[in-house]
Every structure is written in structure tokens, then in C-alpha cells.
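Limitations

Structures in this collection are predictions, not experimental determinations, and the ligand pose is part of the prediction. Treat each record accordingly. The example that follows, with zinc ion as the small molecule, is included so readers can see exactly what is and is not provided: the inputs are given verbatim, and the output is the predicted complex.
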Amino acid sequence: MDKIKTEYFRRLLLAELRRHARLIGDDQAAAIDAADDGAKESADLSLRDVIEELALKLVADIDQALMRLDEGSYGLCVRCGKTIDERRLEAVPTARYDAACQAAIEQANGKNERPTI
Ligand SMILES: [Zn+2]
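Predicted complex:
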């Protein structure tokens, strides 16, 4: 991946990072608290936990993608080492796998989650 593309994806990832970082902050917590009518305090608390957990996971993914950019391994599938399609990276800048490996992983997970009756 050349320097121009590296910078392009870095900006893409940093924009994503800012978007998700906002979800973690007090602003989001305050927004959810404001919507709270007081009757479902525990439900709102768990909603906030879920949002924060998701946002933290996304931020961690973006952080790892930025690290891979610095190392020069960004855009390579961590499973097979092949180049990840750039259209895929534009849609999912934190993608760690190429489409083939992602499909294989999802298929394997689907099999594991199926009930074994
Ligand atoms: Zn792969």
C-alpha cells in the first residue's frame, strides 16, 4: 500500500475513531439519563453498558488498525496474508480478514452456534 493510500485510510480510521469515541463519553451517558423517566433505571443502565461496550470494542478495533498502518501490515489479511480488497477496506476500514477468510470464519462460527440436538 503506497503512502497516499496509507494516509487516506489513516484519515478514514481517525474519523471513525472520533465518531465512536463520542459514544463513550459523558455526553452519551447524559443523553441516555435525560431520556430516563426513572422507572426503568436498570434497563437504561444496561443499555448504556451495551453502548459503551460496543463503542469500546470498535475503538479497540480502530486502534489495532492504526497500529497495523504504522507497522505496514494494514490491508493484509491476518489469516492468510493476502491483500484485502480496497473496496472492502473502504466499507470496513478495520477489516482484518479478506472476504474469503471472513466468509470461512463466519461459516465456522455459524456451525458452532447451531444447536446440537
Ligand atoms: Zn485471508
